[in-house]
Amino acid sequence: QVQVVESGGGLVQPGGSLRLSCVVSGRTIRGKAIVWYRQAPGKEREWVVGSWMGSDFADSVKGRIRISRDNDKNAVYLQMNNLKPEDTATYYCDFDNYWGQGTQVTVSS
Description:
Elements: E1 3-7, E2 10-12, E3 18-25, E4 34-39, E5 46-49, E6 65-70, E7 75-80, E8 89-95, E9 98-99, E10 103-107
Parallel strand pairs: 2-10
Antiparallel strand pairs: 1-3, 3-7, 4-5, 4-8, 6-7, 8-9, 8-10
């Protein structure tokens, strides 16, 4: 059984940073893509970074986020810097169509 767990969200002031984690259990992430999405209340889901065919970043976050992978921990990390109020959303990672419950990021002004 595959399980995806996002964590690391929280409340941060504009200009602050957070490190989000996506840990997968039940299946190795090696050779598999993980895609990050976010969804703000009342808004459509937005793609942030990653794809099955390659890797890219949304224009809204380019230059402010970095992604890394730890195969030993079966985890992917999303380092977000210089956060803006518009980054406020629930962040989800998608591992081969398996989703977690998301982690809430709130950037206050």
